[in-house]
Design brief:
Blueprint (H helix, E strand, L loop, with lengths): L1 H8 L3 E2 L5 E5 L6 E3 L1 E2 L7 E3 L4 E5 L6 H6 L9 H9 L11 E8 L7 E11 L3 E6 L14 E8 L4 E5 L2 E4 L3 E6 L9 E2 L7 E2 L11 E5 L7 E7 L16 E10 L13 E3 L3 E8 L2 H20 L3 H11 L1 E6 L5 E8 L7
Parallel strand pairs: 2-6, 5-7
Antiparallel strand pairs: 1-2, 3-7, 4-14, 6-18, 7-17, 8-16, 8-18, 9-10, 10-11, 11-12, 13-15, 13-17, 16-19, 19-20, 20-22, 21-22
Helix pairs in contact: 4-5
Amino acid sequence: MAVTWKLALLLAVSSAAGAKQYDLPATPATVAWGHYEAGATPVLTVRSGDTVVVHTLITNSPKGLEAAGLPAEQVEPSLRAVFDGVPASARGPGGHILTGPIAIEGAQPGDTLEVRILKIDLAIPYAYNAFGPTTGFLTDDFPYRRVKIVPLDRRRMVGRLAPGVEVPLHPFFGSMGVAPPAAFGRYDSTAPSIHGGNMDNRLLVAGTTLFLPVHAPGGLLEVGDGHAAQGNGEVDITALETSLTGTLQLILHKQGEGPATEAAYPRAETPDAYVAMGYDEDLSNAARKAVRNMIAFLVAARGMTRDDAYMLVSTAGDVEVTELVDRNKGVHVVLPKHVFVGR
């Protein structure tokens, strides 16, 4: 039954260039609940250059949303189906409902997966924000739980957070990652690491390209944790959490193809800047990793000396706190491309 369901919905459409486009819904058969895993069975296999329209689900339960005041009829049927259809044994250790894994034909450890984020659409007209007594950055200040449903105005692209307060919407996926090395086992979706995952990087909007190092055969990309908007730090542990639909082109770069496309650690590229990331339980160590990763990229891809790269990051780069709340803290370095004149 599950195979028939997937075959009916994963429709491939040939393009003029020979690549294909797939539609991947979020169903009990096509989600990974709370984990990334090298030994997972892919729900879809594509070739390099193919595009996947990925449907993702909000990180809350139907009961939780209804308890926060959302009318029952506004809960997505697909969310109810996943909560009813995914057994407890398949859930955890984290809480994110991720769509995938998607295998890329020929991907092997040492390769790099390029994820071109072509488009991200709001799937529902609401989001939520929440904090609790054991989560977030200020647990001593807020030793209680609160959940708020936030209406989203898709025409004006704002979220109405409070009376007279509108938050501009810039949708992105909080979690985009490949499988970690097999030694990680079933890895908790909470903490970002060398595989990407729950990076919560608000720069990963449409038009940005993400580069992820491949650690397992097939790569095994998973996507979810939709955010309509988020501030750097994500201090109360949630953004404007919502369901999103993303159009992603997946391009495989084989090991040794060239330094500009290789990634030993997650990094990204916006139309205007290079972005290097770092994750660690210690915020200072996360910053060191991010700065070192930017230096390594500049040396390999831009031909700079290590000394000059270090100086450039200090004089033109911005070191920003990505998030403070996912066990591994996140830091990213943003370097504008305009500093490279005539190169």
